[in-house]
Structure formats: C-alpha cells, structure tokens
Amino acid sequence: MTPLSAWLVLFLAGLCEVGWAVGLKYVEGFSRPLPSIITLVLMAASVLMLGWSLRVLPLGTAYAVWTGIGAVGTALLGMVLFGESREVARLVCIGLIVAGIVGLKLVTRD
Q1: pLDDT tier for residue 88 given thresholds of 50, 70 and 90
Q2: Which residue among 10, 15, 23, 78 is buried most deeply as judged by most CB within 10 Å?
C-alpha cells in the first residue's frame, strides 16, 4: 500500500465511523434488524480499514485522524439530521478539530 492509498483508506474508514456513529441513533438498542446490521457492518469496515492504513501510517496520527473525521462528521450530521445546536462556539470547536486533522496530515512523514 502506498502512502497516498493509506490516507485514502483512512479517510474512508473515518466516513464509515461517521456512518456507524449515526447508525447508533437508529438501532434502538439493536432491536431494529436492518439498521443494526448496517451499523455493525460499518463498524467492522471502519476498524478493518483503520488497520489496513496502519501498515503505512503512524499509529498516533492515523488514530487521531480517524477519530477526528468521525467526530466532525458525526457532529455535523447531528446538526443536519437531529437538529442539534449550531451555535458559533460549537462550530469553532469543530473547526479546531478539522485544523488538527489537517495539521497532523501535513506534519506526518508517510
């Protein structure tokens, strides 16, 4: 795996993390079969792809980026799908997470 493909796989893993985190809102204690299956598949795919990216990327950076993508994506979808707060302070904090993700990417040697 090349460094570029590792970053792409890590990004996709982060998107899967967003998917399963949002999915948890729909599974109702894992009592709804289809949302539960989709959520579990996304969980497995997310961790699997994180593991693949770790063949090339440093652990600390990859994990921080993975969780950062998950946190930002989940927070944004919470606002869009569930009417969660959009106050300025919250958006600034999300922006800081994005800045951290970008900063880690820029300073990481592949």
Answers
A1: very high
A2: 10
